[in-house]
Amino acid sequence: MTTERSPRVDLVQLGEETLQALADGDLAAAEAGAPVPLSPYLAGPECRPVWEIRAVQVVVDPPSADWITRVVWDPERRLAVGRAGFHGPPDGDGMVEVGYSIDPDHRRQGYARAALRALIAWAADAPGVTVVRASVSPENTPSLNLVRAHGFVAVGEQVDEEDGLEIIHERRL
């Protein structure tokens, strides 16, 4: 049996002001308040819609700040390679939904795998979490393969306003 080696990653939490700066696409302001150096990708068009949601979310629901999207940080290379986290705290049924995206310059290097594993471990250690969900576009073959390789099973479909059709996968803890 072969095991795929993944780089070690840390999921670095960002403060309210940094989230808002990233939502605004202001990398300089975001870096001024960030605990690690950020990348242009994180302030770019692919990530900004997520930061916009999360910047509002932490104001409306401050405890959600502990659960939401963070920077995927490679501590060995001292490099921000993407973002990953949950959409929010567990719901009333103990479900959390993951979201992740790796900078195109760092894809196919094991970072998404490492981030997903960190999220699963986080959820497994959290009291009351029973299910981890991942909603993935049917065209996103790498992400579909990733969640399926980590024990997620398709349980349905949904249409996301921004992302279109998604296949809902869940993994029981």
**What are the secondary-structure elements, in order, as H or E?**
EHHHEEEHEHEE
| Measured distance between first and last alpha carbons | 24 Å
Percent strand: 25-35%
State mean pLDDT (0 to 100 scale).
95
Taking all Cα atoms into account, the compactness measure Rg is 15 Å
**Secondary structural class:** alpha+beta
Low-confidence stretches: none
Q: For the largest sheet, list the strands in their spatial order.
A: 1-2-3-4-5-7-6
Note the overall shape. Answer: globular
The number of E-state strands comes to 7
Number of helices: 5
Major sheet characteristics = 7 strands, mixed
The helicity comes to 25-40%
How would you explain this protein's 3D organization?
It is built from 5 helices and 7 strands. It is of the alpha+beta class and 173 residues long. The chain has a 7-stranded mixed sheet with strand order 1-2-3-4-5-7-6, with helices on one face. Strand 2 and strand 3 (79-86) form a beta hairpin.
Any chance you could write out the topology, listing elements then pairs?
Layout: E1 10-12, H1 16-23, H2 27-33, H3 48-60, E2 70-74, E3 79-86, E4 95-102, H4 111-125, E5 131-136, H5 141-149, E6 153-160, E7 164-172
Parallel strand pairs: 4-5
Antiparallel strand pairs: 1-2, 2-3, 3-4, 5-7, 6-7
